[in-house]
């Protein structure tokens, strides 16, 4: 279990230059004791480097599966690293479903992250149909195992993002999240993965208290709500809960 709770934003292709304005106004106290990053489109990385406050790290939403070479349009892990990116989301369900990314490709991207000292955040998640079919735990385990490929005993965060909860405005229920993250926790131990477990899928300032209270949830990956100062409100709630727990366990 990581020492600090994690909050990650994913701006997807939904941001513009004006989105940066709210980030400038975020307050450090809101993020006290948290690891925070925002994954933004690569073209904005250098701008983000200038305007992001020091307590928000730079993230990418994807990277090339290749190290370097004649791959027009691709952006490599090394390039991102050189430009100040520290975290990379890999295997997001939108990449998997809209761009046909399979587990093998995700495992290659994982290799690129690890080889370039980028912290990977690996997304797994089942579709609504898969959940209805009942074998979603096996599906998720398989997705994790194949996305890891050969990699074991590594530093990585795993985000559980049920596809049916993404972007819809209603997060998964606490029992649904709790069941899966308990499995993820034991798989991570089995493969020697050192890192946190994030939940993602319509996380908001309303649902965050419930989500962060779930055993084995170490943080959240936030899409829509990271486009406004709601991101700061979510961080503040996580930070307050985490420090209250620390005091109670002393
Ligand atoms: P959402 O997106 O918070 O808008 O549901 C989460 C994600 O896709 O990472």
Our estimate of the beta-strand percent is 15-25%
Helix content: 25-40%
Instruction: Identify the bound ligands.
Output: 2-phosphoglycolic acid
- Rounded radius of gyration (Å): 17 Å
* Oligomer category: single chain
Strand tally is: 8
Query: What's the overall average pLDDT, rounded?
Result: 96
SSE order and pairing:
Elements lengths: L4 E6 L9 H5 L9 E7 L4 H7 L5 E4 L16 H6 L4 E4 L2 H6 L4 H13 L3 E6 L3 H6 L2 H13 L8 E4 L13 H17 L6 E4 L7 H5 L6 E4 L7 H20 L1
Parallel strand pairs: 1-2, 1-8, 2-3, 3-4, 4-5, 5-6, 6-7, 7-8
Helix pairs in contact: 5-7
The chain binds 2-phosphoglycolic acid (PGA).
Task: Tell me about this structure.
- It is a single chain.
- This protein has about 250 residues and is α/β, with parallel strands linked by helices.
- About 40% of the residues lie in helices and about 15% in strands.
- It has ten helices and eight strands.
- An eight-stranded parallel β-barrel has the order 1-2-3-4-5-6-7-8, surrounded by five helices.
- Helix 1 (about 20-25) links the parallel strand 1 and strand 2 (about 35-40).
- Helix 5 crosses helix 7 (about 135-150).
- The chain is globular and about 50 Å long.
- 2-phosphoglycolic acid binds next to strand 8.
